[in-house]
Amino acid sequence: MENKETQIDENLVDYLAQLSLLHFDDNEKKELVEDLHKIKNFFEKLQSINTDNVEPLEHLNTSFYSLREDKIFPFEDKEKLVQLSNQSINNYYTIPKVIKNKKHE
What we know:
- The protein is mainly alpha-helical.
- It contains three helices and two strands; from the N terminus they run αααββ.
- Helix 1 (10-19) crosses helix 2 (26-47).
- The protein is flat, with a radius of gyration of 22 Å.
- The two termini are 27 Å apart.
């Protein structure tokens, strides 16, 4: 499979903004392009590090393992929570579709 590198430019920022329902002015787009380049360069630098003899970590913080017991509490007023939502159907929250499949647009 061919590894096609994504071009980081204002078109990519426009595409990401559309997916996330955000809007950026021209200055913000330029800053985001620069930030994305910095992030990409950082990850490229990380990929160059030899980790052959390094054991993988499950968690950076060892206190993660001090888990508490889960306790289930019934919630009496589900309808009140649903009323706080902007939109709901049959007591479930609804949100606008944010990911679109280009094949079906």
